[in-house]
Amino acid sequence: IKKKGKGYTTIACKVERAGVLGAGIMGGGIAYTSAVRGVPVVMKDIAQGALDLGIGEARRLLAKQVTQGRIGQSRADAVLSSIEPTLEFNGFDSVDVVVEAIVENLNVKKSVLADVERRVQPSTVIATNTSSLSVAELGTALVRPENFVGMHFFNPVAAMPLVEVIKGPKTCDEAAARIAGYAMAMGKTPVVVKDCPGFLVNRILTTQFVSFVTLLRDGADFRRIDQVMEDFGWPMGPAYLQDVIGMDTSNHVIEVITAGYGDRMKIGFRHAVAVMAEQKRYGQKSGAGFYRYE
Ligand code: NAD
User: Fold this and answer.
1) What is the CATH number of the domain that holds 137?
2) What pLDDT digit, counting tens, does each position of 5-17 carry?
3) Is 293 contained in some domain?
């Protein structure tokens, strides 16, 4: 999308085939959403178990679509077979975009991004789904930072309509446009935002998070808060949301954002989510968080 006077004009940026790095909560969801919208995916992880879980999640979501009568079984089978799992970089030399959704660790991401850049075409746009790391900093690992951009999905990917497209200082308009176009092809609404801690949506959510953990410290019952916010109209309450995101991920993002804005977003006490993260009580993925999961 290029600026033209006061409006915008769309430039050609079709994505025919995508690569996804990481088959976890986000990578699995991104691969499924891309494939179901007609863009085949090659999905790489370092663990066979993770690939199996990612494919299993896609299979579960497709079975739900079939049960609901939205697609037929043969279409579901075709979509599933358009997600190609790999432990190597098989097929990455023919993708138009790569979406990186591996562990939220700066050095690991930098080394994996540099590695994948050597295995794709020079024109391939590489995107990161980071929630909290700087796109500018991650881009320093790359030879072609102009082709690097943030593509921040929300959890669960298949259900959440917004995607933040984060331009780093060297990201070119064409790369951002291709990623915005890919988001639209996936049925999402892209919003181009600046590269700052929390980008846009997580900055807003953090203020709610601070109110939530402050209420808990004041003695409120998290189940009651969840119930009231669901009655208010939220699809889920703040405690359940933490269980879905994962206490480790959430706590890390909160730390980055609160540190990034100093007094403007200070939490001056040890809060429940940090304590649970320390105790490895991560939420749904570990079987217990605010709630217990069988
Ligand atoms: P996750 O732990 O569920 O999955 C990460 C996956 O990456 C694992 O399967 C792991 O095996 C794999 N992996 C690790 N190193 C790898 C490598 N070198 N190559 C390929 N795969 C590798 O994590 P997640 O929650 O899916 O988060 C992934 C990214 O998405 C993080 O950057 C996170 O900040 C971001 N994110 C998470 C959420 C959320 O709600 N969980 C929301 C938005 C963005």
Assistant:
1) 3.40.50.720
2) 555 544 446 899 9
3) no
